[in-house]
From TrEMBL:
<dbReference type="GO" id="GO:0000930">
    <property type="term" value="C:gamma-tubulin complex"/>
</dbReference>
<dbReference type="InterPro" id="IPR007259">
    <property type="entry name" value="GCP"/>
</dbReference>
<dbReference type="GO" id="GO:0000922">
    <property type="term" value="C:spindle pole"/>
</dbReference>
<comment type="similarity">
    <text>Belongs to the TUBGCP family.</text>
</comment>
<dbReference type="GO" id="GO:0000278">
    <property type="term" value="P:mitotic cell cycle"/>
</dbReference>
<dbReference type="GO" id="GO:0031122">
    <property type="term" value="P:cytoplasmic microtubule organization"/>
</dbReference>
<dbReference type="GO" id="GO:0051225">
    <property type="term" value="P:spindle assembly"/>
</dbReference>
<dbReference type="InterPro" id="IPR018247">
    <property type="entry name" value="EF_Hand_1_Ca_BS"/>
</dbReference>
<dbReference type="GO" id="GO:0051011">
    <property type="term" value="F:microtubule minus-end binding"/>
</dbReference>
<dbReference type="Pfam" id="PF17681">
    <property type="entry name" value="GCP_N_terminal"/>
</dbReference>
<dbReference type="GO" id="GO:0005874">
    <property type="term" value="C:microtubule"/>
</dbReference>
<protein>
    <recommendedName>
        <fullName>Gamma-tubulin complex component</fullName>
    </recommendedName>
</protein>
<dbReference type="GO" id="GO:0051321">
    <property type="term" value="P:meiotic cell cycle"/>
</dbReference>
<dbReference type="InterPro" id="IPR041470">
    <property type="entry name" value="GCP_N"/>
</dbReference>
<keyword id="KW-0963">Cytoplasm</keyword>
<keyword id="KW-0493">Microtubule</keyword>
<dbReference type="GO" id="GO:0043015">
    <property type="term" value="F:gamma-tubulin binding"/>
</dbReference>
Amino acid sequence: MSLSRKGIGIKSFLTTNVVEEFMHPCERAIFEKIIDILSSLSEIVHFAKFFGGVSQLEISDSSDAHEYSTGYYLRNFAQGIENALDDYYKETAQLETLTEQNTTHSLNYIYNSLEQHLPIIIFLRKLINDARIQKLNGCQLLENLHVSYDHGDIRLKKIINKVSRPVKLAFLSHLAHWLLFGIIDDEYSEFFINYRPNEGVAKTSCDKSYTSTKSSQSILSEEEIWQYEIRFSQLPSFVSAVLAEKILFVGQTVLVFKLDRRKIKTDSWIPKSQGPFCDDIDELWNGKEGIFCNLIEDLNQDDKIDAFELERAINQIKKYVSQRLSEIAVIEDDLERQLGLIKDFYLLGRDCSKRNGNG
């Protein structure tokens, strides 16, 4: 039961012949139950260590790694599993110390102590098996954790909170980068916003995910902006299709301001403004991007992502972006002057009609 290196030593212990050589037949059944618990724990620890980014010096390669998907969400999921095991590590270490100090404790005492953690171990194994069998990745993995909140066990609620938090951080990071900067850094196709180039375009979605992180405006074209779309296979249940469209709109609007807008203006419009009112996304947010970034980060304060709070935050950001678009249209493109000319045109037409009628 040594917890040196947090559970890695369990596997080597399970491969020994301790039961056959040193256990009395009367105690063998109890000891085998203890072994079953430790075996299940070993699977969980192995998953958390291998996919959570532990050095290969600490754990050998996982033979079933090919059965899982790849990506940042899976790595964060494994880190969440590791966080959920912290309390177990501490309590088991206390049990070890107590057993070493008092040799009169029976195997049944040890088994009863370990059995208290069995519901948590079974729950964690289920989450891991779901990820393996369904090959969940990205928002699919987050969705599976989201629906796993529906139970009445307070201990399991605490566990799912710890497991979900790193995965929620990955999701909110993707969301913030898209909404505020128009960036999709999505090497493993984990987010529900996807870049889909037109047929005949050489760049792949991964290539575009990489190039979209660059700050140079010259890499963007007006046509490319509208090639972003919703990947419904990764759309979690707490994000409705309508809300996803709003998220897509905000990110595409940000990308518009990454364009060299002087290139898309006609010559007749250039003299109306001595200089561009909005050259980049800094002017779009007008110094308020930090406020909206905090608004998104605050969504991780809740144990479970609140669909209503998420929608409220997105609506607030979309409202601000829409207002800024109106301001920019009025100032830079002299919208009031254009509307005034249209009004004068129709009034002039009415005056001419009146004069012709009087004549």
